[in-house]
Write a structure and sequence with these properties.
single chain; alpha/beta; Lysozyme-like; 6 helices; about 30% helix; binds zinc ion
C-alpha cells in the first residue's frame, strides 16, 4: 500500500522527506551529509506489499512498485528498475515505502482492495498461485542482488521497525488469505521461510 502523502511531500519537498528517512545507509563517498539516506551503492532490502487495488496492475501500481504479481502469478515489471532506487534524490524511483525507499526493492501483490479483516477480506483476496510466485520472485531477487533473506520484510514490518516514518501503521501484509492460520506478526517470518525454500531449490 503506497503512502500518497509521502509521495506528494517527497516530490515537492525533497528536504522534507529527508527528515523521515531515518535509516542507516551507505553514502556515496563524495555526497554531502544532507544526502544521507537518499543515495546508496547497493540494493539492500526487499519490501513486500499488497497493492490494495484489484487483481491486475493499474498505472499507479506500476509506477510505485518495481514488480507486481497479478492474480494468476504473472510477474510484471513496473515503470522503475530496482537500480533506480539507489538514488532517490533525483525523484525518479519507485515510491513504495515511506522513509525506506533508498536501496529497497518493492514487490507488490495485486489485490486486497476493500480488505477489512480476515472475515471481510474484500473482493480481491490474494491467491495461492500469486503469493507463491511472488515468494519465488523474491528468492530470485535475493540471489541476483545478493540480498540476505533476513533483509526481506513486509511493509507492515518496516513500519513497526520505523515508527517515525510514514510507513508506520501500514497493514500490508497482515493477512494471507491462502494461509489463514498464519498470524499477522508471523507473516514476515513465514514469507522468509518460503523464500529460503525457493532460493535453495531454484537459485542456489
Ligand atoms: Zn505497502
Amino acid at each position: 500500500m503506497v503512502s500518497f502523502v509521502f509521495l506528494h511531500l517527497s516530490s515537492v519537498y525533497p528536504l522534507f522527506f529527508l527528515e523521515f528517512s531515518g535509516e542507516a545507509s551507505l553514502q556515496c563517498s563524495n555526497a554531502p551529509h544532507w544526502l544521507k539516506g537518499l543515495i546508496m551503492t547497493k540494493l539492500e532490502k526487499i519490501i513486500i506489499h499488497w497493492s490494495a487495488s484489484a487483481y491486475y496492475p493499474n498505472a499507479t501500481d506500476l509506477e510505485h512498485y518495481h514488480f507486481v504479481v497479478d492474480k494468476d502469478g504473472e510477474v510484471k515489471p513496473g515503470k522503475y528498475k530496482p537500480e533506480d532506487n539507489l538514488n532517490c534524490y533525483d525523484g525518479k524511483y519507485a515510491q513504495h515505502c515511506g522513509g525506506g525507499n533508498t536501496g529497497a526493492i518493492g514487490v507488490s501483490f495485486c489485490g486486497m482492495a476493500g480488505f477489512k479483516n480476515a472475515k471481510n477480506p474484500g473482493k480481491y483476496p490474494l491467491t495461492f498461485k500469486q503469493v507463491e510466485s511472488g515468494f519465488k520472485l523474491c528468492a530470485e531477487l535475493c540471489k541476483k542482488y545478493n540480498i540476505p533473506i533476513n533483509n526481506v520484510m513486509t511493509h507492515y514490518e518496516f513500519g513497526k521497525l520505523h515508527p517515525n516514518t510514514l510507513s508506520a501503521g501500514k497493514i500490508d501484509i497482515i493477512y494471507l488469505p491462502c494461509y489463514p492460520n498464519v498470524k499477522a506478526n508471523e507473516i514476515g517470518a513465514f514469507i522468509r521461510q518460503k523464500i529460503k525454500w525457493y532460493k535453495l531449490k531454484f537459485f542456489s
